[in-house]
Amino acid sequence: MAESLKIASQGQGLPVVFIHGWGLNSAVWQPCLEQLKADFEVITVDLPGFATNASHQLTEYSLIEIARAIQQSVGKPAVYVGWSLGGLVASQITMSYSSQVLGLVTVASSPQFVERSNWPGIKENVLAMFHQQLAKDTTKTINNFLKIQAMGSPHIRQDIKKIRDLVMQYELPSQRVLDDSLKLLETSDVTDGIANITQPYLRLYGKLDGLVPKQVIPLIDEITPKSQSYIFEQASHAPFISHQSEFLAILRNWLLERINKA
Length: 262
Description:
Elements: E1 7-10, E2 14-19, H1 30-36, E3 40-45, H2 63-74, E4 78-83, H3 85-96, E5 101-107, H4 124-136, H5 138-150, H6 156-167, H7 175-187, H8 191-194, E6 201-206, H9 217-223, E7 228-232, H10 239-242, H11 244-259
Parallel strand pairs: 2-3, 2-4, 4-5, 5-6, 6-7
Antiparallel strand pairs: 1-3
Helix pairs in contact: 2-3, 4-5, 4-7, 5-6
């Protein structure tokens, strides 16, 4: 049996698992966890190859394999909260292990991130540029990515510094892991799968997000009519950093109303 991923748990109550986005690690959630652990069991997990799971190797770096590894490591029914790439992972966990998922929350995420003729998203040449930069300078690439995530935020410098200070507690992933996980953003499409999700489902967005444009929100509304969505008017790609109080209020109320009373 493959070795389990390392997870961290704080608090007691409803289990809520937080999954980070591309290039970063679970430390980005620390400020939120401090506010939530009094009411919930908050669980964080680093994606395979990242931070505390830097040595964890997968035979295939795919959504399905990552979802399997995380769900098996958590080992009990839980709510899954996924940011950006983590939203794809959380969606896959919900689709593959429905009985083990109490609810799904995606933050600044899309079922397919790349722009298509009928789908707003990241232009393919932008992702190609990141692949090229990774081959030259991993640290510079991550720093450039942080700038894109905060672009549009009314306090962009503070947001970038806060994210950087949090995630730089750990060494950066290898170039190969960053490249493999970036390919997940390029190639993954769970659009059909999320249409069948029956659990309580909350989608959170930043109106100023340059990676998940607001034009995609009504398209996902149509695909998942039973889900709920909320837009942070002045936020970009990391609303839990830039608008932490508002983010926590929305998440906490939803967990208490939709999950605890279900």
